[in-house]
Design brief:
Elements (H helix, E strand, L loop, with lengths): L13 H9 L3 H11 L7 H9 L1 H7 L3 H7 L2 H46 L35
């Protein structure tokens, strides 16, 4: 004998689904649920089961949840701050490049002026400790081993 297939989930009304998708946590959902549906006969267990199915409802209505999250004032403020930060960083990069180019020109002018005043070019600096020439490793001659002579016919 087979058991008749029972209902896996209880029926959830559209208003309950809307409420689930609007709330951010289960505590807020429970409080809102009792305000919106004061004459409900559902207990805490049934209400928590509705909250647990939130992701299922969100998949069925994908446009409801992202619109509420992306249009917030905080996200617009963050975008404005990031834009301002990017603008400032690009200005700093341009000023740093300009400063580097000016420093290169100053160093080139000083080197040229030094050459004119001293009358000779600067030699590249030698290391403080001159490198000692590498001597080839001493090879010892190994004595030849005498092998016994084998006589055979």
């Amino acid at each position: 004998m087979q058991k008749p297939q029972g209902r896996k989930y209880q029926v959830v009304e559209e208003a309950e689904i809307d409420l689930v998708l609007k709330c951010r946590d289960s505590h807020e959902f429970y409080e809102q649920y009792l305000k919106v549906f004061p004459d409900t006969k559902k207990g805490l267990d049934s209400i928590s089961k509705i909250w647990k199915r939130r992701s299922e409802f969100a998949k069925k209505r994908p446009q409801t949840l992202p619109q509420a999250e992306t249009g917030t004032a905080a996200s617009r403020e963050i975008q404005a701050l990031i834009t301002e930060q990017t603008k400032i960083m690009s200005e700093m990069a341009a000023l740093t490049k300009e400063n580097l180019e000016v420093s290169r020109q100053i160093l080139a002018a000083l080197a040229h002026q030094n050459h004119i005043l001293t009358g000779h070019e600067e030699k590249p600096k030698e290391p403080a400790h001159p490198a000692q020439p590498q001597k080839p490793p001493v090879q010892k001659k190994a004595p030849e081993k005498q092998t016994p002579i084998m006589v055979g016919s």
